[in-house]
Amino acid sequence: MSKRFVVAVSFALATSVACGGISSPSQNKQEPFSGVLQVGGNAHFRVDVANGGEYSVRITQLTPTVTATVGVAWYQGGNCDFLQQQNYATLNTAALVGAIYQKGAYCVVIFDIGTLTVPQNFTLVVSHP
After folding, report:
1. Tens of pLDDT along 37-92?
2. 3-state secondary structure at position 26
3. How far is the C-alpha of 113 from the C-alpha of 119, rounded, in Å?
4. What is the pLDDT at residue 79?
5. Which of 1, 47, 116, 122 could disulfide-pair with 106, CB 3.0 to 4.6 Å?
6. What is the C-alpha to C-alpha distance for residues 9 and 96, in angstroms, rounded to an integer?
7. What separation in angstroms does the CA of 22 have from each of 7, 26, 41, 53, 84?
8. Shortest CA distance to 22 belongs to which of 46, 45, 48, 54?
9. What is the CATH number of domain 24-128?
10. Any idea what the Cα angle at residue 27 is, between residues 7 and 22, rounded to 5°?
11. Which whole-number Å values give the CA distances from 9 to 13, 16, 26, 90, in the listed order?
12. Three-class secondary structure of residue 122 per DSSP
């Protein structure tokens, strides 16, 4: 590799990070959201993303039915435009994983897929740049 190429790549990476570019997943914010998911219900939460990078959504609490299966979805923008959905999310597994190309407002939703028989206390953790 030429020295000129290394300098150009280094400059591009530094400029990208300084201007709110792509962030490393190790720098992600861990944002928890909690509530009660009613039978047949859903809960929406706004997530403000400062940079591009990777995101993930994980359910870290689900009680009283720790084996329950629920849905989780990821939306973009103030109108919550659909991006990704998982209809079989379970406790302590990555429900959603993906790339964020544009900073701004996003939404995460947890919902009953028709299998709950009692309300569930939940905590979702969204890892995002």
Report:
1. 999 999 999 999 999 999 999 999 999 999 999 999 999 998 889 999 999 999 99
2. helix
3. 13
4. 84
5. 47
6. 31
7. 19, 12, 35, 5, 20
8. 54
9. 2.60.120.380
10. 50
11. 6, 10, 21, 41
12. strand
Which strand (E) or helix (H) includes residue 15? Answer: helix 3-18
**Per residue in 36-71, is it b (16+ CB within 10 Å) or e — as a string?**
ebeeeeebebebebebbbbbbbbbeebeebeebbbb
* Token pair listed for 37: 């998911």
Q: Residue 92's closest CA among 57, 118, 64, 65?
A: 57
With beta carbons less than 8 A apart as the criterion, state whether 74 and 55 touch.
yes
Query: Is it the case that residue 23 has pLDDT exceeding 80?
Result: no
Q: Could you write out the three-class secondary structure of 35-102?
A: EEECCCCEEEEEEEECCEEEEEEEEEEEECCCCCCEEEEEEECCCCEEEEEEEEECECCEEEEEEECC
